[in-house]
Amino acid sequence: MKQAVLFDLDGTLLDSLEDIALCGNTALEISGLPQHTLEEYRGYIGNGVDALIRRMLRPEDYPRHAAKVKLDYMALYGDLCAQGCRTYPGALEMLRALREKGFVTAVISNKPDPQVRMVWASTFGDALDLAVGQMEGVPVKPDPAGPREVLRRLGEDVRCAAYVGDSDVDMQTGKNCGFYTIGVTWGMKPRRVLVENGADSIAGTMDELAGLLELCRAAPAGAP
Q1: What are the pLDDT digits (tens) for 86-102?
Q2: CB within 10 Å: which end of the chain, N or C, has fewer?
Q3: Structure-derived torsion over alpha carbons of residues 38, 44, 46, 47, reported in degrees to the nearest 10
Q4: Lowest mean pLDDT among 137-141, 145-149, 203-207, 220-224
Q5: 140 burial class (0-12, 13-18, 19+ CB within 10 angstroms)?
Q6: Residue 220 predicted with pLDDT over 70
């Protein structure tokens, strides 16, 4: 049976906080609305674009401006995704090394599916076997529906060796799916949040992550 590693995208493989904040603030500026700091955006990311827009807007601005701000944000960030995004150092090399060792590599993200597909094409290419974003009718993570759909697409002969992410949402997703879950500390949330939300292991570097995944490969399903 083939073994897959499922990755979150933003904060795990993509160093995207500054890009999301730039596009978010530009969208707010277009509508004449208050903007936010980088650290504020760190807390806004993780639950999909609709939650991001809701957090960006003051309650009194949300009903009237949400649709326009979302439309502008999607256009701005979509253009960026098509041009190529910044990955964390060593991420592409790590993904390619995993594939050379026989792993299947896939992304499941709460970012809208069209944007995820653009990032796959512009940034990752053949370093990933599959990349799936949030799709209409499929609940966002931490609901297990998205990761299960990824495994279905990968084929009946594929099992999840580990799920890798950087946030409380990701650790909850892994637990909801029954996956072995690895938290990474270079992303959006601190180590404490990962541990509190059930991370089975923690990686502080790409090399540490690669080592943990080797252990997953040698272990029975669900227990490195």
Answers
A1: 999 999 999 999 999 99
A2: N
A3: -160
A4: 220-224
A5: buried
A6: no
What DSSP line would sit under 98-114, residue for residue? HHHTT-EEEEEEEEEHH
Spatial CB neighbours of 123, under 8 Å, sequence gap ≥ 6: 14, 84, 85, 87
Distance CA 127, CA 132 (A): 14
Q: What is the pLDDT of residue 219?
A: 67
Nearest-angstrom CA–CA distance, 224 and 213: 9
Q: Among residues 85, 68, 73, which one has the least CA distance to residue 14?
A: 85
Distances (CA, A) of 112 to 101, 149, 199: 30, 15, 25
Residue 15: which of 74, 82, 89 has the closest Cα? Answer: 89
* Active-site residue, selected from the candidate residues 8, 129, 166, 200: 8
Closest CA to 163 of 109, 113, 204: 109
Arithmetic mean of pLDDT over the chain: 95
H-helix or E-strand spanning residue 181: strand 181-184
pLDDT at 217: 75
Cβ neighbours for 211, distance < 8 A, ≥ 6 positions apart: none
Q: Is 8 a catalytic residue?
A: yes
The token pair at 217 is 């490969």
